[in-house]
Design brief:
Elements (H helix, E strand, L loop, with lengths): L4 E4 L3 E2 L6 H17 L5 E8 L3 H9 L4 H18 L6 E4 L3 H16 L3 E11 L4 E3 L17 E10 L5 H10 L4 E2 L1 H13 L4 E2 L1 E2 L14 E2 L1 H6 L1 H4 L7 H7 L4 E5 L3 H14 L8 E4 L2 E3 L2 E2 L10 H8 L1 H10 L7 E2 L2 H31 L10 H5 L3 H10 L3 H22 L1 H6 L3 H22 L4 H10 L11 H6 L24
Parallel strand pairs: 1-3, 1-12, 2-3, 3-4, 8-13, 12-13, 14-16
Antiparallel strand pairs: 5-6, 5-7, 7-9, 10-11, 14-15
Length: 504
């Protein structure tokens, strides 16, 4: 049985509306899943984290029950992912019975094995981040992540013996130096491990919005509950064959602020269950405005629906992946998006598409000329392999730069060979050869850029007269295929019309 490529996003905390940061993570996962499907089977999981005190507080403020609050918000997340052409295979909600059953089963398994015990928790707690903090980690007495006030909690809770797994965790990090990326996050987690670990509280008794503990006495702590979605969605303890088809995960994407949960607590819980750690946890950077992380709590959240309407979802997908290497913070502005769209997509790629199809229409009635040798494309024969390798290695900027080598070469070929002059001088065979190579080049670009810009590249594919069902298939097969002579193309409107921003 071939194990599928399994990619996950963090499940998104449903205390409010989604913002562009959530789109960023989900688009990255979508590009990975689409690329993996060009090689073999893939499974892409996303969803919503619906328990915890913050959700209960938000629901109460809106005059709703927590379940009503979650049920009202979930459709907006799904609409957002649809708007950005995201192709997830499963959307899990932590309020679903299939998830709650697994959470309770995990708790029982760990209790049977002696990995959890009943104790008293006393410490500082941030309600907003649902996170406990040592006093030494507080910044001027506040949460080091969100800057909010923390409160002192004292209650009888169940604890997971995290400290027992500290040596194994440190050994795993040192034996697998690339399993957490980027390196800055890896180093930060190693430093935490070298400081030593405390056991981890996994239950709450001061509120009741969560998965009930087996036998009563409180609810499962929201973070412990949430981490288990990655295995509850694929059938842990329910369907072993399905579970082992996907686990361990190939890539788990998280924001860097939650790396500690996913790279220290999560693998320890998995080992306690007898399961393997994920192959890679990648903690991406933040999108910032004037140096501040975008987020609802800071009041600078950007409406992703409005951005998709203004710039086009595929242009936003391209911007998010091209602007900075994954793992780095980068700043957002409408001016930057418009500049990237107009330069890369409008002037470079869009102009190449429009000129090629316009000349084909003008000189050959829109019909692809006879197939011939393609010396220019042959010089770039390694680009598909380079692009796929870079995409699956999460080097999105490198992948797009490699693709743009081909875009630049095709544009240069038009300027150097001057098809308008070839037509005027009656050099029909040379013109046919150039037009054919340009059409075949566009076909390859549509294939390479489809994971990043699926809607616009599907549109280009159709304009080239190709069957859309083939787009997204095995790249090795698609590279060997050539556009057939006699194929009728369609010019259409510019693929990436220029964007002019209103003066502020």
């Amino acid at each position: 049985m071939q194990r599928a490529y399994y990619v996950t996003t963090p499940i998104y905390y449903i205390s409010g509306n989604p913002h562009i940061g959530h789109v960023y993570t989900t688009v990255v996962a979508d590009v990975l899943a689409r690329t993996a499907r060009t090689v073999g089977p893939a499974f892409f999981l996303t969803g919503t984290d619906e328990h915890g005190q913050k959700v209960a507080n938000a629901a109460a403020a809106a005059g709703m029950s927590p379940q009503e609050w979650c049920d009202a918000l979930v459709p907006r997340w799904k609409l957002l992912f649809d708007a950005y052409h995201v192709t997830y295979d499963d959307f899990i909600r932590t309020t679903q019975p299939r998830h709650e059953h697994v959470v309770q089963r995990v708790f029982e398994r760990l209790r049977e094995r002696g990995d959890v015990y009943l104790g008293k928790y006393q410490g500082w707690y941030c309600v907003y981040d649902e996170t406990f903090w040592l006093e030494s980690k507080l910044v001027e007495g506040r949460c080091p992540t969100c800057g909010r006030d923390v409160q002192w909690l004292s209650e009888d809770d169940w604890f997971f013996r995290l400290s027992m797994y500290a040596p194994r965790l440190l050994e795993h990090f040192r034996a697998h130096p690339d399993w957490v990326r980027p390196k800055s996050v890896y180093n930060e987690m190693v430093a935490l491990l070298e400081e030593g670990l405390e056991d981890f509280s996994i239950s709450r008794t001061n509120f009741d919005w969560g998965v009930p503990l087996p036998g009563g006495g409180g609810v499962v702590y929201v973070w412990f509950d949430a981490l288990l979605n990655y295995i509850s969605a694929i059938g842990w303890s329910v369907d072993d064959e399905r579970f082992h088809r996907y686990w361990p995960a190939s890539v788990q994407l998280v924001g860097k602020e939650i790396a500690r949960f996913h790279t220290i607590i999560w693998p320890a819980v998995l080992w306690a269950l007898g399961e393997a750690a994920p192959e890679l946890v990648f903690a991406h950077g933040w999108i910032t405005v004037e140096g501040q992380k975008i987020g609802k709590s800071l009041g600078n959240a950007v409406d992703p629906f409005a951005l998709a309407h203004q710039f086009g979802a595929d242009s936003l997908r391209y911007f998010l992946l091209r602007e900075a290497p994954l793992g780095s913070d980068f700043s957002y502005s409408e001016e930057k998006i418009a500049q990237r769209h107009n330069s890369d997509l409008g002037n470079d790629l869009g102009n190449l598409v429009h000129r090629t199809l316009s000349m084909l229409q003008r000189y050959r009635d829109g019909i692809v000329p006879p197939a011939c040798a393609t010396p220019l494309l042959d010089r770039f024969s390694d680009v598909p392999a380079r692009v796929r390798s870079a995409l699956l290695d999460l080097l999105f900027r490198d992948a797009l730069e490699a693709t743009w080598e081909l875009v630049t070469a095709l544009n240069r070929a038009i300027e150097e060979h001057k098809p308008w002059a070839l037509y005027k001088e009656g050099r029909a065979s040379e013109l046919d050869a150039l037009l054919y190579e340009l059409c075949e080049g566009l076909r390859r670009l549509a294939m390479l850029l489809h994971p990043v810009m699926p809607e616009r590249m599907a549109q280009l594919w159709r304009r080239l007269g190709l069957e859309e069902r083939h787009l997204g298939g095995d790249w090795d097969v698609l590279v060997d295929e050539r556009i057939a002579a006699g194929t009728r193309t369609t010019l259409g409107e510019p693929l990436f019309p220029r964007i002019e921003l209103e003066p502020t």
